[in-house]
Design the sequence.
């Protein structure tokens, strides 16, 4: 989710090497407001270098082979014993998937004055290498577009075209095709990566925060699963001959499953902010559509709430594994709606139901009927900007920025020892401009 539509220029950065420190490096996020309401610019100097590389190779790719533990890292055991303290192998995997999301941001054309606005800046064949992110061994097989389902009034035809852009490039599907990387990973990995909110129409969909029922093809057992209206609209809407994001995903996954039917396979859906919400819907849809799908895992960063408790139950039932990376100081992870704790009935000494508990349960049921009661989904890796002295006073943009998330993951040890004394990456201030995705 995002506060405003912004111009965006991704930081290319240089290799920073390693450093030894007893505190966090500095992230700078300076907000600048300019222009009128229809063209509000927010600029932030973000400094995490997603390349994080030495001689052009991703640090994560230098880790020991993970082929013997890949299913655990993908959540087959719900990450038990891996999150607190954070397993170093899992850390590398989370950072690696974060780089795929970073690539989605870098590839998107944020320039509203450009003819290519809201499209991918690079050809599919060289997308991952052209954007400068240190992801190797994968081939992009499909570009993905999301379409807003809101019908704008006729008077909007008089405003600049970029304001009412309905369909926009939002991510991609990539398949691991490097033999050495497949051997290291222990399987052929399929990645679906989504960026966060970037257009006015996507922001409008973010504001449609009431819950709505999943369509029958996504909830075949009619179990009252409900999700945020705007997220579902972006996933299922089509316009102007452009297929929906849902149709693109189903078509591409069907091809991949047929092509690699005889190989060990995993599907990892990753995203930041709005992309995190779409990642959850995508994973659920894949497991609902393909009865013999491989292990499907969501690795999300700074995601908002997506659905109600029935949706959560359906995710758990169909085997979708969700790992949510959450910054406790990021307000976007606490919206939309609200969450109610499920209270078990309590008995008084006389054996009757406690009046207060009964009233609480009654009130909870009435509130759930308002379509504003969400549920937290999946397993959570909770981090905090406050644990880093240089981030503790950061604004909303800093707390929600993908670079902040990846820096916190890179330095997290455990709940008792939040930060590593020695960090792998240097976060250095640059003069580049980056948008604040909120």
Sequence:
């Amino acid at each position: 989710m995002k506060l405003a539509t912004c111009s965006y220029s991704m930081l290319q950065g240089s290799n920073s090497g390693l450093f030894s420190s007893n505190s966090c490096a500095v992230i700078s996020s300076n907000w600048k407001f300019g222009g009128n309401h229809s063209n509000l610019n927010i600029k932030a100097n973000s400094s995490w270098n997603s390349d994080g590389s030495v001689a052009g190779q991703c640090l994560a790719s230098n880790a020991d082979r993970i082929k013997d533990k890949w299913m655990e890292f993908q959540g087959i055991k719900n990450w038990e014993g891996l999150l607190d303290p954070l397993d170093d192998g899992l850390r590398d995997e989370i950072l690696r998937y974060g780089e795929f999301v970073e690539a989605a941001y870098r590839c998107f054309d944020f320039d509203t004055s450009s003819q290519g606005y809201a499209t991918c800046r690079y050809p599919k064949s060289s997308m991952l290498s052209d954007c400068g992110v240190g992801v190797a061994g994968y081939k992009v097989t499909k570009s993905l577009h999301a379409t807003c389902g809101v019908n704008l009034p006729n008077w909007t035809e008089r405003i600049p075209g970029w304001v009412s852009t309905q369909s926009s490039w939002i991510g991609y599907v990539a398949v691991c095709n490097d033999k050495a990387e497949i051997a290291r990973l222990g399987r052929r990995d399929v990645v679906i990566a989504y960026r966060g909110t970037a257009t006015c129409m996507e922001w409008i969909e973010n504001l449609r925060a009431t819950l709505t029922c999943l369509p029958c093809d996504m909830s075949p057992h009619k179990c009252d699963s409900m999700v945020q209206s705007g997220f579902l609209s972006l996933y299922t809407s089509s316009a102007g001959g452009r297929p929906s994001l849902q149709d693109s995903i189903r078509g591409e996954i069907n091809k991949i499953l047929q092509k690699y039917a005889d190989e060990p396979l995993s599907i990892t859906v990753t995203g930041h902010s709005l992309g995190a919400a779409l990642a959850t819907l995508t994973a659920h849809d894949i497991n609902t559509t393909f009865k013999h799908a491989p292990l499907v895992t969501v690795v999300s960063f700074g995601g908002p709430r997506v659905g109600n408790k029935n949706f959560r139950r359906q995710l758990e039932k169909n085997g979708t594994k969700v790992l949510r990376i959450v910054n406790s100081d990021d307000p976007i992870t606490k919206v939309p709606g609200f969450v109610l704790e499920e209270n078990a009935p309590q008995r008084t000494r006389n054996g009757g139901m406690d009046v207060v508990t009964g009233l609480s349960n009654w009130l909870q049921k009435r509130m759930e009927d308002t379509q504003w009661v969400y549920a937290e989904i999946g397993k959570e890796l909770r981090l905090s900007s406050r644990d880093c002295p240089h981030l503790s006073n950061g604004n909303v943009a800093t707390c929600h920025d993908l670079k902040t998330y990846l820096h916190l993951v890179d330095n997290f040890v455990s709940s008792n020892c939040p930060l590593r004394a020695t960090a792998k990456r240097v976060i250095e201030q640059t003069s580049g401009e980056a948008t604040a995705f909120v």
